[in-house]
């Protein structure tokens, strides 16, 4: 990290000043003070210093994460080389900018961190704000979990705006990410909710009352299947529509053309141009 590199000369300066003061002349101790002050300033500003550096030199994405993207992320596979580099850089920076907190396990594996980050980056790839900094904490459970908002319901994902927290069950999240042709993409679902909480004034599309009747024409999914997978009622159809905009773009565009154009304008992406066709088959 750049802050440690900047701090190193001042640490050396302080140590040398103390050494010369001890061995030769006590007046050399006066040089300790400016070194300590400089170190204090660097320490206080270290997050900003390091972030400035990371933005210019993003850390290389973990090879395991890149392998999973190439295998399981259809959007990533359609990108041009320069776009893939930007995609990977944004994932690396997202992982640095957010705190991943394990629950019911010792740590969050790097590949899980990377794929969670990839879900956010996919949603926001056409935008400048890909970090969604209003939600900086990501709590990861191995299995569905209860929460203060839903203490009696074991569910697979949730966000809590007051604390800026996002929660995922690895089990359902990974199924949705790695087998989008069979399972609902919880990562896109939850990060759309986060985006909407962060930008409530955006003109989001509306859906008619027959949304759930039409949805099977897009993916084969029924409301009951999504609710069973997520573990919570899904009366809010907007995130469900947004997920299908990304995962089943061509068919979503055919069935919901006005809503497709609205999402296209919001996210500055036209996923139907690059989509690899997938079909849900949740029973």
Question: What can you tell me about this protein's structure?
Answer:
This protein is α/β, with parallel strands linked by helices. It folds into 2 domains: 2-56, no CATH class; 63-273, Cyclin A, domain 1. It has 13 helices and 4 strands. The chain has helices at 2-23, 32-56, 63-72, 74-77, 81-97, 110-123, 170-178, 186-198, 211-219, 223-230, 238-247, 249-255, 257-267, and strands at residues 99-102, 137-141, 157-160, 165-169. Strands 1-2-4-3 form a 4-stranded mixed β-sheet. A hairpin with a 4-residue loop joins strand 3 (157-160) and strand 4. The chain is globular. The N and C termini lie far apart (48 Å). The model is unreliable at 276-283 (pLDDT under 50).
The secondary-structure element order is HHHHHEHEEEHHHHHHH
Shape summary:
globular
* Low-pLDDT residue intervals, each spanning 5 or more residues: 276-283
CATH level 3 topology of the largest domain: Cyclin A, domain 1
Q: Give the averaged pLDDT, no decimals.
A: 85
Give the termini distance in whole angstroms.
48 Å
Counting structural domains, the number is: 2
Looking at the overall shape, the CATH architecture of the largest domain is Orthogonal Bundle
How are the strands ordered across the major sheet? 1-2-4-3
Got a strand count? 4
